[in-house]
Amino acid sequence: MPTSWLTALDWFGIAIFAVTGALVASRKRMDIFGFMLLGAATGIGGGSLRDVMLGQLPVFWVKEPASLVICLVVSAATFFLAHIPESRYRALLWLDAAGLALFCVVGADKALEAGTGGFIAVAMGVMSATFGGVIRDILGGESPLVLRKEIYVTAALAGAGAYVGLIGLGVSNAAATGTGFALCFTIRALALHYHWS
Amino acid sequence: MPTSWLTALDWFGIAIFAVTGALVASRKRMDIFGFMLLGAATGIGGGSLRDVMLGQLPVFWVKEPASLVICLVVSAATFFLAHIPESRYRALLWLDAAGLALFCVVGADKALEAGTGGFIAVAMGVMSATFGGVIRDILGGESPLVLRKEIYVTAALAGAGAYVGLIGLGVSNAAATGTGFALCFTIRALALHYHWS
Amino acid sequence: MPTSWLTALDWFGIAIFAVTGALVASRKRMDIFGFMLLGAATGIGGGSLRDVMLGQLPVFWVKEPASLVICLVVSAATFFLAHIPESRYRALLWLDAAGLALFCVVGADKALEAGTGGFIAVAMGVMSATFGGVIRDILGGESPLVLRKEIYVTAALAGAGAYVGLIGLGVSNAAATGTGFALCFTIRALALHYHWS
Predict the structure, then answer these.
(1) Cα separation, C160 vs C192, whole angstroms
(2) What digits encode the pLDDT tens for the residues A90-123?
(3) Higher pLDDT residue, B113 or A3?
(4) Is the confidence metric ipTM above 0.85 for this complex?
(5) Chains with ≥3 Cβ pairs under 8 A against C?
(6) Three-state SS for B89?
(7) How do residues B66-108 score in pLDDT, each as one tens digit?
């Protein structure tokens, strides 16, 4: 399995979620270290929960601090750049959708690598993808995105399910990853655009 | 120790808590996968926290996915059946009381099995019984039940304490389980009925 | 390393955070077991999260129940003594500052003992120091202190950073601990007093 490829996607998802955490810190007018705390908790929260449930300890960012560095750098950058309040919440929603689509695939893949069956791998994909945002919204004192009327969990489930199903059918990892990502992101994007519920 | 007997009680508690999670999803008008997420988080949340604190990893539902399947089936069934809004919150309170009574015993038993002393076993019983509901209420954006004026933690403590005390006195597991469950449920039921605080 | 010395500071921090949890229970007019639950969750929450992330399981209070006993005793004492509502929130803020200063040092030290590098040790110090309070505020239905405008994360970061930096420079543990504590507490105290943001 092309680990470097999935690692790149993982880090990209972590960075995107960290930006969404930093945007919530921005809405709350926190200082730069508040941005970093909320960005890091969002970026590494879902994956940490996944590692704990699987018993893969210490968690990934203790083993490989680069992922935490990414969160801190990206959150600090957001602090200096997030000056346009009116577009902030839309940006958060779309970045969250991209992070969701990346993490539902990466989370499922990490579970398969840890030796779980397909059912648990799908559950881990959905959990990794949704709980970073849940942690962000709870820490930030916002109503969790997962409670909004637009389709959310469904998109993560479709992406993780497609990925695990295609891997089970012997499809290449790249094709399964691409399909899982595209399916989750498309469903969530359509839901956001048309206010599906 | 009759493991199959305690496993049955455990699964029953998981199913009951999953229904309470699904009822919160219903109050929030979430879709079926939202029901499943909130039902699963509530059903397996307290036990997962217990397993993590004890270092029994991966957590039980990764080892034995049947418990997660139960949560998902029960939550989906609740989605199709929970049509009577006015009775929903009362149902939630009573089911939560039953789950509390089952989990305070099961949680304490799991801790004893993991080799802890009686004091930590009581603490694990209280934690398993209360934190599934805490996770449900926080994810659902509701004020935690544990904060309500009616006696709540006290009931879990009485149930877990009675179970561990009776096991320590050499009483049979079935009698200790029955006593712990009955004590916790009775205290909570009286508190709900008479609005004890 | 003088373990008994750091253990004493750890227990002192745990006791102080437990009081802050009990004060939130007091604001919510909970019963004595509610005080104990919230006190214990606050006192041992940050350290439990640290142990889980590091993979040091079971968590410290399962290995050494004395720390949980401290939380319960201190919370019960607060129940009988916390009668002066108007001073409660100020007391909470100042005790939280002391706990923050103790835990940013103890958390960083525990991570170094577990073999992490300095960067992760600083992160663990900040996480241990801030998440006990986050758990308290979320369980208690209060807006997290970490979101308030006054400098908060910054103080924990300064304290943990000073401790790890001085240890890295070969300074004695006592001097590094004293400096880290004093730096964090002073920054937070000035922020509270002058309403720095």
Answers:
(1) 19
(2) 888 889 999 999 999 999 999 999 999 999 999 9
(3) B113
(4) yes
(5) A, B
(6) helix
(7) 999 999 999 999 999 876 555 677 888 889 999 999 999 999 9
Per-residue pLDDT tens, chain C, 197 aa: give them. 456 778 888 899 999 999 999 999 988 888 899 899 999 999 999 999 999 999 999 999 999 999 999 999 999 999 998 765 556 778 888 899 999 999 999 999 999 999 999 999 999 999 999 999 999 999 888 878 777 767 889 999 999 999 999 999 999 999 999 999 999 999 999 998 887 76
Which residues in B lie closer than 8 A to residue A149 (C-beta atoms)?
29
Query: CA torsion angle for A64, A68, A73, A76 (degrees, to 10)?
Result: -170
Would you call B120 and C68 a contact, using CB atoms and an 8 Å cutoff? yes
Query: DSSP per residue over C23-48, as a string?
Result: HHHHHTT--HHHHHHHHHHHHHHHHH
Mark yes or no for CB contact C141/B123 under 8 Å. Answer: no
How distant is the Cα of A120 from the closest Cα of chain C, in angstroms? 21
pLDDT greater than 90 at residue B165: yes
Of B36, B58, B138, the CB nearest to A53: B58
| Chain A contact present for C52, CB below 8 A | yes
Q: Is the Cβ of A157 closer than 8 Å to some Cβ of chain B?
A: yes
Residue B166 distance to chain A (closest CA, Å): 32
Among B75, B104, B61, B60, smallest CA distance to B15 is for B75
Q: Indicate if the alpha-carbon torsion angle B129, B134, B140, B142 is positive or negative.
A: positive
Instruction: State how far residue B58 is from chain A, nearest Cα, in angstroms.
Output: 4
Best A153, A188, A195 member to test B by mutation, with max B CBs in 10 Å, is: A153
The C-alpha atoms of residue C90 and residue B164 are separated, in whole angstroms, by 40
Find out whether C146 and C154 touch, Cβ atoms under 8 Å: no
Task: Print the domain residue range for A18.
Answer: 3-194
Asked if the Cβ–Cβ distance from C33 to B157 is below 8 Å, we say yes
Of B50, B38, B37, give the one whose Cα is nearest residue B130: B50
Q: What is the pLDDT of residue C149?
A: 65
Q: How far is A74 from chain B (nearest CA, A)?
A: 27
Task: Provide the number of structural domains found in chain C.
Answer: 1
A2-37 per-residue burial string, b: 16 or more CB within 10 A, e: under 16: eeeebeebbbebbbbbbbbbbbbbbebebbbbbbbb
